[in-house]
Amino acid sequence: MVRSISAEWIKLRHSRIGIIILILPMISLLIGCANYYFNQTVLQNEWYSLWTQVSLFYGEFFLPILIAIICAYFCRLEHINHNWNMVLTAPVSITSIYIAKLWVISILILIVQIFFAALYFSAGKLLGLSAAFPSETLGWLVRGWIASISIATIQLGISLRIRSFAAPIGIGLCAVFIGLGMYIAKLGLFFPYSLLTIGMGVLSQDILNDSELILFLVMNIIFIVVGSFLSINRLKKTDAV
Questions:
Q1: pTM
Q2: What is the pLDDT of residues 18-45, one digit of tens each?
Q3: Rounded CA gap, 137 and 54, in Å?
């Protein structure tokens, strides 16, 4: 397992994925801050109002797309030059290969979440917000990270199956709009892309009650476990092309 994780980290050397990881959160935050700045007469709840604007673009669009890009990138090397033949015949279990990819992707998403939190705090100070920093922010970020792992599980499975780099990202974009529809239909807890919207308090900052929080965690565990099982099972039974 350690060797597999180390191999996945090596892929990041001399890659431009780090630039994308930094740029997309910054773009989403700039758009959200601009919306907040020009609508302060309506948005008067300081930190909470700022969160509604920056998290709308980040959690609803940019973060899911970023996850799709990262997952596609971590499968790109195997899809070229018949590298799957070497990977699947290496003295490493298929389960280790998959878990290593998901583990590294999850750590990268966590780094993105921390970076976004720092941007959010800095932007609030620059905009002159004087109220206390909302304690709910940590919960939004942690739940968003958990939901992001569910999305990463789905996107990784798609990227493992489809050789194209762009197609999984396009599928992820379509899933974002489906997730928005599921959320509006009050079915968000049953779709991974909607779970991100709920977890990060993108469209509603209402605190989840105990039953909603338990259901949120259970559904994420189901998506992660089932999605991982299906991907690992397919890798074990499908010949490399």
A1: 0.92
A2: 888 999 999 999 999 999 999 888 888 8
A3: 12
